[in-house]
Task: inverse folding
């Protein structure tokens, strides 16, 4: 059974970088048949897809258009985990952040526990 | 403003049937598979339906999905009070290469 365990700070100051990590058990981050997504949820934005990373003989990324200049998602095969970095955060980035395993046809099958990240000074 | 459009709320009595609609466009629902998620307060969403109408293992057949053109529908029969939750549709937008969700529908079982 696949499990995703998120870690990272719950409070980030404006203009700084939000960093979260998602540790994978029961699967490999290098699995050729899945993708690893980050999604956030806030009362104002609802569910918002942020981006994903996946391995198909090499690594690929897709990112939300509005975040392309501020976001990076990286896989760490040695630790079997993937991470999110969001730069230059503002209070508008306050949300619950989820890491999610994606199976075929963008079915989001396994979700992490969620991390509430508050952007505030 | 979400890319996919869902009604904010629906309600029905226990034992009855309810449907939740999800409307999109030719670049998302019209060109890709739809999935549905159930979310209880304070918890992560859970995959309910994938590939338009397939149920993951463990999801009862009271839950069903369908798609026609640029719209999709989630159906729930034999409503139970435990079905009270928020429901979201999601799909991939092929023109933007991004994942998109509906704004969510709150189901109340009266």
Result:
């Amino acid at each position: 059974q696949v499990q995703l365990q998120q870690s990272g700070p719950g409070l980030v100051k404006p203009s700084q970088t939000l960093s979260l990590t998602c540790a994978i058990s029961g699967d490999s981050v290098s699995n050729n048949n899945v993708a690893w997504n980050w999604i956030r949820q806030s009362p104002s934005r609802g569910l918002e897809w942020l981006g994903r990373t996946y391995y198909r003989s090499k690594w690929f990324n897709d990112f939300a258009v509005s975040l392309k200049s501020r976001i990076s998602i990286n896989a760490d095969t040695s630790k079997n985990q993937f991470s999110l970095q969001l730069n230059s955060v503002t209070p508008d980035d306050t949300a619950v952040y989820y890491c999610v395993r994606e199976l075929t046809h963008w079915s989001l099958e396994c979700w992490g526990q969620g991390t509430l990240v508050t952007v505030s000074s | 403003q979400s890319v996919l459009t869902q009604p904010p709320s629906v309600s029905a009595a226990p034992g009855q049937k309810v449907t939740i609609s999800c409307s999109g466009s030719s670049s998302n629902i019209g060109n890709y598979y739809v999935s549905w998620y159930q979310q209880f307060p304070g918890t992560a969403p859970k995959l309910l339906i994938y590939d338009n109408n397939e149920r993951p293992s463990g999801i009862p057949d009271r839950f069903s999905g369908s798609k026609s053109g640029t719209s999709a529908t989630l159906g729930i029969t034999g409503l139970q009070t435990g079905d009270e939750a928020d429901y979201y549709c999601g799909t991939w937008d092929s023109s933007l290469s991004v994942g998109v969700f509906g704004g969510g529908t709150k189901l109340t079982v009266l």
